[in-house]
From TrEMBL:
InterPro entries: Methyltransf_25 (IPR041698), SAM-dependent_MTases_sf (IPR029063). This is S-adenosyl-L-methionine-dependent methyltransferase. One of its GO terms (biological process) is methylation. The lineage of its organism: Eukaryota, Fungi, Dikarya, Basidiomycota, Agaricomycotina. CDD domains: AdoMet_MTases. Residues 73-170 form the Methyltransferase domain. Residues 1-10 have a biased composition (Basic residues). SUPFAM superfamilies: S-adenosyl-L-methionine-dependent methyltransferases. Signal peptide: none annotated. Residues 14-25 have a biased composition (Basic and acidic residues). Residues 1-25 are annotated as: Disordered. GO terms for molecular function: methyltransferase activity.
Amino acid sequence: MAEHHHHTPHCSHPQHDSHHVHEDHHDFKQVNKNYFNEHAHQYNDRPEAQELARRLGAAMIGAYPFNEDSTLVLDYACGTGLISKELASHAKCIVGVDISQNMVDQYNQSVANQGIPPEEMRAVCCDLSASPDQLDGMKFDVVVCASSYHHFPSIKKVTTALASYLKPGGSLLVSDLIKPSSAQQLFPNESRHIVAHNGGFEETDIKSAFEGAGLADFAFVTAGSAKKHGHSVQFFLASGINGVGGRA
């Protein structure tokens, strides 16, 4: 968001219904919800998470023509808002969505502490992959999802859900771990209960999900590197556009 405040009625008060959430047979979703509810209070205390958010946010800003006077952003699996914070000065409105209520509470408390009105930046607790049309018909210029795809059992299901919230010509930007050439596990065994994709992703995995969601102009680039659980890892930024023929 720009430093000056402006009224954004189209970004006001998206509703949610926690009863829409349906758990997968192996309840990655419920386990993740419980895990992040438990750790939300200390999530922002990790310098490495803040640095990674800066790098991935910069990559997103370079990949999409954000406009602080018009761009509406959906930040899915927003957590406490680290990515939203990086994008805030470049967008008119950001709506964060997460299945963890405690993460959402931390997000909204941080926004309130900065004096930003909820019409410009707020988070809601819901699972967009559980059922359609959960945000009062809102559509967005850009939907972002950072460092979260490895938690989702079905990236195709999530990608299709996220694409449904794009305006015609809108862009989906996803960043996560690139699968290394060696078949190494990127997460320790004690994290496997919350990580559905322990080895990261190949470009073909993400391209298939994007194309299956009807997104065009797929692109996949290296967004940066970081240390994760003692490993040096690479992050990708994937993008696709809702509708053939480029941005509206």
